[in-house]
Sequence to fold (421 residues):
Amino acid sequence: MDHFLYRDGQLHAEDVAVRDIAATIGTPFYCYSAATLTRHYHLFTEALSPLPHMVCFAIKSLSNLAVLKLLGDLGAGMDVVSGGEYRRALAAGIPGDRIVFSGVGKTREEMRLALTGGIRQFNVESEPEMRALSEVATSLGLRAPITIRVNPDVDAKTHEKIATGKSENKFGIPIARASEVYAEAARLPGLEVIGIDVHIGSQLTDLAPFEQAYLKVADLTRRLRSEGHTISRLDLGGGLGIPYARSNEAPPLPMDYGALIKRTVGDLGVEVEIEPGRLISGNAGILVSSVIYVKNGEGRDFLIVDAAMNDLVRPSMYGAHHDIIAVEEPAPGVDARVFDVVGPVCETGDTFAKARPVAPLGEGDLIAFRSAGAYGAVMASEYNSRPLVPEVLVKGDHFAVIRARPTFDEMLSRDTIPEWL
Ligand code: LLP
Fold:
């Protein structure tokens, strides 16, 4: 359940009419619901209790400081994958001991930043990275707490661009080589090995691949312990999927996912970490846009809207589905009208949906793309020199712009023309 519902014929974000936000700041914009973010975070903490655990929000899915502060105040940890995300977490008031650092290409500079600023653990992904981290930590007179990400060679059965747990993917070390790599890690002076990390992919709509991966991690935990390593923490990654097409999708619930975790690793006496992004942020956000024109094409009608692939790239990049609804609730008994919903960007890939029944919309009407909170604003760009899409947070009857739309002058002022030109 989210908090984007019709009330008195108008789509509301909690207690605020979406139409009123649009009238204040113009379109397009992202709108997030604080109550939905809160609810989704709590679903995970409840699902994992009473195991000792930490839910580390994957910042990459939605990185606005206001959202991070909201989740941080609830007790969430953060999963970061760059120095920029690490800085965001700190700027939002998250203490270093609640930040985990993932990613295959951490630079020495990023390692230094996190070691000096405070870190819960690095999730190390390769032997060269492990050696570099040991050197950096030693040079600072520190020991870096680490888990090593293992690649369990499991098919996550998700879109190929977001599957990460097969041996051909760039992530982690092959699980078969874990003993050897952990032995080297234990010898490196700047490292303190504390656990194992695994993440097999994103938007998983079946629990079976998680189960396969977590059983392998449980076996590995026993083996590494018998080889003398301390394994006190398991980071089980993120990836639980959400319903994008609400009429016919019902992915597993966090409660079922939590039960699976307890079943597979619950008896190991470890602290469990998870790194959900999409399930917390995805259905906590919508992208609101206005209809510019209705164009009658050959055998199809185009709804040309003022959001485009630069604002929400998922449909054009992954062929992703987002439900599209009218902000003004269609009157009962009114038939939907079928449109190709497209943006103004000059390429055919700028298509949000084909032959989609929406509502009999016309110029100036508002629409909302649902399930757009995750990997929406964070993947936006200024392609076609369209100013970066703004973000709004609603809580009860309050709303605030949490990232303003840049002016055209601000956008242009970032470029410089060399004086010798
Ligand atoms: N942990 C790690 C190490 C990850 O790589 C990811 C996502 C997550 C956690 C969070 O996964 P989630 O719970 O959000 O599924 N841009 C794509 C998704 C890319 C996901 C990358 N890694 C999309 O729009 O679908």
Observations:
- The domain at 34-280 is CATH 3.20.20.10 (TIM Barrel).
- Residues 205 and 251 are 5 Å apart (CA to CA).
